[in-house]
């Protein structure tokens, strides 16, 4: 249990992706089965343990210590799981000679009935030290919140076994904790596990951005063009009565889109974009789509107001026939006839963009016919469907980003290589009536500048600090003073969380405008106009 | 006599009227008794200072030889009479030279502990519990959430991380007096024998510790003058403030570590951008505080600098009279 607890503690404080991967692979290497597999399941959210409510935890601890001292403690720490792990009284005569393993903890928790759950939990907490108690409480209260996505965990598995991550993704949904066969294969001690489960995820094919000079080398006749829809890339798999919608990294998202999943009356694997609206009438905007994102459950009203549908790009499998090795041209032909059999309110075909030369396509790309289009896709007519991001067969050619001139408001110290630099910037634009303008924060960015520019901004921040809050400095920014940053971003979402009412997608610093006076930075209305488009 | 007539707070610090002296005064006074060398307890500018020889040495190193008008060294355990008040110094286990001060007059004995800890520390003499009527305890970590793990366990985590990330340097933030030397000594005791790199602010005090027979092994300045040194895999010790500074830019992709009792609270580590918190403290944790209060046998406890209310509450539950003693001007430099 202690090694798992230590892993959680390290992961939550390690900001760098590579650092996290090292910690995870070291853990997989040094910990035996079934503990490492259970830890993996806890991280990916695949561990099934009956949840304990915070109120129950509180009751358990105040039965064991003075409620006033508990209140002082909780007020100070602010986090219930952490407070309980620290104050849980350890009776001296009651300390076992060894702490329980993760496997033992999980087995006890899973075997506990609803009524004796609290007693089992208390017994486990009695038998564990502080770090292990914290980890146990995290397991039973759900949600580790350690900044590791399932995707990153799979990447760590791939690194650990030196295989490609798509192999892990393809296997994943046929496996279950504690993944003993998977680890055995990754360690070279057994064959690759065979997948016999139904409706599995197929690793998706991705594209590369069009780089400078790329197009000159390519013949337009070799490529088909489609709009690049800015929804969520999904894979719809129906087989043997099982229907699943996967995200492009293989996470099962069927639960969030039951309306679409229920319309999958076929036996096939489709690749496409999830959007909202009725494809026969109108495609919803990104703001509409946002209503359906990041929800665990979805009300019937929501499904009616923002129905989900799939715009199909590709057909990977039909019945028992795997089409992935066929050229795109043939797959597309099969897709076109197959799409005709689908529910037209839930599925349509991604249309081709007709073009003769790159110049003509460039004009279409710059002025797409719908706000949720973010550019065009180029696909070689002869390309098979391969996992990952091969260079050459598929390209994405995005619309140019939006830009806004904003004023630097706060700077936060970075991590690792950047721990002595103020490298994360919060910036704002002007709002309010003339003469009463105020800066309102609209986003945060921490890349897009060169190392040399970072040094310059860092110096500016240190020289113009007006207040400090821990690692954050508030920087002088008013009508007469301030550093203007040109910020590039892909789009805007409505936000109820931010005072400005907008949230930027993928913001980065595109230029430092040392020359521009702060009062000439943009106003919030400029951004609001983008929202309403 | 009433205990509060023997010692009570004044703006300058804790004052003893019959003896006419202050303990750890925060403003210049005629006669000061000083528990240890941390700058919030040991200030310069007093007319006369009574402290252990090591505390006097440390004050000299920090403030210059003329830090006080006159000085007198107190030997541990020896009784000194000041206007008929008997005072004696006893080890506090906090940092090198640190002492509790016992003040006795007309049958009443008060022990002012200054800062103290009970965990073993190879860089200073261990705390000795003194029987007394009133025990003045610090409460820096006076909440049941503060439970310091064994320091050896924390150092093992540092060494494990150094092995896991051999291409990066580990920057260990530790206060210049006491903590830094303790961390270095712990590393040596764990068998780490490579040179340790130190920030300039640690040089004089570390040298003094070595001169007092506390072996810290090979220490090298963490400078890049005289050619480019490679700090990959190195352990660098410095004051915490230096790591947020431009000074830290010479190290390759550093992992910031901080050796402090505050690192028990995750949010503290997170806010400070600490990647590897090391829970190593020179102050007593909750269990040490409560155990020490019982050991002194004191009928009354005065609680100072820290989270007084929780410790006062605990005393109430134990049937021990207790009250907060409001002294101003103490921070937690030592942790």
Features:
heterodimer, A: 533 residues, alpha+beta, D-amino Acid Aminotransferase, Chain A, domain 1, OB fold (Dihydrolipoamide Acetyltransferase, E2P), seven-stranded antiparallel beta sheet, 23% strand, B: 335 residues, alpha/beta, Metallo-beta-lactamase, Chain A, Rossmann fold, 2 domains, six-stranded mixed beta sheet, 24% helix, globular
Oligomeric state of the chains in view = heterodimer
Number of helical regions of chain A: 19
Query: Poorly predicted ranges of chain A (pLDDT <50, ≥5 residues)?
Result: none
Q: What is the fourth-level CATH superfamily of the largest domain in chain B?
A: Ribonuclease Z/Hydroxyacylglutathione hydrolase-like
CATH fold-level name of the largest domain in chain B: Metallo-beta-lactamase, Chain A
* Arithmetic mean of pLDDT of chain A: 92
Helical percentage of chain B: 10-25%
Estimate what percentage of residues of chain B fall within beta strands. 25-35%
Total number of strands of chain B: 19
Helical/strand content category of chain A: alpha+beta
Task: Provide the CATH top-level class of the largest domain in chain B.
Answer: Alpha Beta
Mean pLDDT of chain B: 93
What is the CATH architecture term of the domain at 208-398 in chain A? Answer: 2-Layer Sandwich
Q: Could you state the CATH homologous superfamily of the domain at 208-398 in chain A?
A: DNA ligase/mRNA capping enzyme
Distance between the termini of chain A: 53 Å
Strand order of the main beta sheet of chain B, please?
Answer: 7-8-9-10-11-18-19
In the CATH scheme, the class of the domain at 208-398 in chain A would be Alpha Beta
SS summary, helix count of chain B: 9
Q: Which residue ranges of chain B are poorly predicted, with pLDDT under 50 across at least 5 consecutive positions? A: none
């Amino acid at each position: 249990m202690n090694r798992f607890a230590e892993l959680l503690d390290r992961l939550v404080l390690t900001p760098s992706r590579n650092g996290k991967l090292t910690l995870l692979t070291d853990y997989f290497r040094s910990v035996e089965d079934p503990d490492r597999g259970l830890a993996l399941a806890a991280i990916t959210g695949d561990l099934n343990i009956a949840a304990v409510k915070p109120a129950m935890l509180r009751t358990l601890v105040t039965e064991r210590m003075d409620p006033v001292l508990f209140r002082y403690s909780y007020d100070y720490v602010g986090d219930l799981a952490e407070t309980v792990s620290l104050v849980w009284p350890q009776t001296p005569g009651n300390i076992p000679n060894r702490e329980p393993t993760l496997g033992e903890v999980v087995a006890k928790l899973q075997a506990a009935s609803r009524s004796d759950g609290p007693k089992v939990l208390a017994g486990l907490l009695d038998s564990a030290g502080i770090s292990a108690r914290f980890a146990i409480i995290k397991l039973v209260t759900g949600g580790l919140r350690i900044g590791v996505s399932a995707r990153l965990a799979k990447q760590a598995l791939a690194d650990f076994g030196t295989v490609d991550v798509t192999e892990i993704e393809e296997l994943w949904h046929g496996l279950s904790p504690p993944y003993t066969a998977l680890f055995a294969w990754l360690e070279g001690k057994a064959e690759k596990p065979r997948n016999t489960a139904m409706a599995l995820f197929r690793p998706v094919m991705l594209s590369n951005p069009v780089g400078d000079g790329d197009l000159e080398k390519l013949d337009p006749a070799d490529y088909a063009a489609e709009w690049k829809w800015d929804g969520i890339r999904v894979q719809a798999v129906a087989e043997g009565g099982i229907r699943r919608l996967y995200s492009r990294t293989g996470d099962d998202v069927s639960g969030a889109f039951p309306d679409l999943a229920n319309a999958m009356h076929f036996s096939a694997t489709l690749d496409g974009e999830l959007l909202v609206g009725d494809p026969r009438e109108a495609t919803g905007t990104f703001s509409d789509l946002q209503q359906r994102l990041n929800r665990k459950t979805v009300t019937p009203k929501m499904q009616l107001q923002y129905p989900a549908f799939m715009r199909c790009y590709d057909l990977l499998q039909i019945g028992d026939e795997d089409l992935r090795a066929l050229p795109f041209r043939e797959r597309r032909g099969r897709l076109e006839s197959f799409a005709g059999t689908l529910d037209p309110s839930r599925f349509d075909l991604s249309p081709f963009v007709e073009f003769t030369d790159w110049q003509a396509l460039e004009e279409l790309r710059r002025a797409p016919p719908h706000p949720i289009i973010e550019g065009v896709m180029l696909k070689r007519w002869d390309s098979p469907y391969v996992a990952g991001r091969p260079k050459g067969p598929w390209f994405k050619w995005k619309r140019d980003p939006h830009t806004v001139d904003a004023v630097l408001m706060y700077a936060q110290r970075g991590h690792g290589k950047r721990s002595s630099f103020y490298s994360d910037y919060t910036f704002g634009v002007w709002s309010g009536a003339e003469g009463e303008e105020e800066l309102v924060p609209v986003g945060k960015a921490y890349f897009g500048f060169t190392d040399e520019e970072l040094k310059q901004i860092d110096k500016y921040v240190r020289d113009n600090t007006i207040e400090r809050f821990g690692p954050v400095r508030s920087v002088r920014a008013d009508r007469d003073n301030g550093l203007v940053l040109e910020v590039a971003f892909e789009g805007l979402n409505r936000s109820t969380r931010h005072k400005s009412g907008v949230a930027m997608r993928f913001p980065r610093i595109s230029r430092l405008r040392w020359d521009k006076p702060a009062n000439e930075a943009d106003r919030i209305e400029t951004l609001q106009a983008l929202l309403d488009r | 006599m009433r205990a509060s007539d023997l010692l009570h707070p004044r703006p300058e610090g804790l004052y003893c009227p019959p003896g006419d002296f202050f303990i750890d005064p925060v403003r210049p006074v005629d006669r000061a008794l000083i528990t240890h060398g941390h700058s919030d307890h040991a200030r310069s500018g007093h007319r006369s200072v009574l402290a252990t020889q090591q505390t006097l040495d440390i004050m000299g190193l920090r403030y210059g030889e003329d830090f006080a008008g006159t000085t007198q060294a107190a030997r541990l355990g020896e009784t000194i009479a000041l206007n008929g008040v008997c005072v004696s110094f006893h080890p506090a286990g906090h940092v090198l030279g640190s002492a509790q001060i016992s003040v006795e007059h007309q049958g009443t004995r008060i022990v002012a502990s200054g800062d103290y800890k009970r965990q073993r520390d190879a860089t200073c003499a261990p705390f000795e519990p003194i029987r007394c009527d009133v025990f003045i305890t610090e409460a820096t970590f006076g909440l049941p959430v503060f439970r310091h793990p064994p320091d050896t366990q924390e150092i093992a985590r540092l060494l494990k991380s150094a092995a896991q990330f051999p291409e990066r340097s580990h920057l260990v933030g530790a206060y210049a007096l006491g903590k830094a030397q303790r961390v270095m000594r712990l590393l040596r005791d764990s068998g780490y024998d490579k040179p340790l790199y130190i920030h300039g602010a640690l040089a004089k005090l570390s040298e003094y510790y070595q001169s007092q027979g506390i072996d810290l092994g090979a220490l090298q300045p963490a400078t890049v003058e005289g050619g480019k040194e490679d700090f990959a895999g190195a352990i660098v010790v410095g004051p915490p403030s230096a790591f947020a500074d431009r000074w830290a830019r010479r190290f390759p992709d550093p992992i910031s570590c901080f050796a402090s009792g505050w690192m028990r609270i995750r949010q503290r580590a997170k806010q400070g951008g600490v990647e590897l918190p090391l829970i190593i403290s020179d102050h007593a944790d909750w269990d040490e505080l409560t155990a020490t209060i019982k050991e002194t046998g004191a009928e009354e406890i005065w609680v100072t600098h820290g989270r007084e209310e929780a410790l006062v509450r605990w005393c109430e539950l134990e049937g021990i009279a207790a009250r907060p003693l409001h002294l101003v001007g103490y921070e937690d430099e030592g942790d």
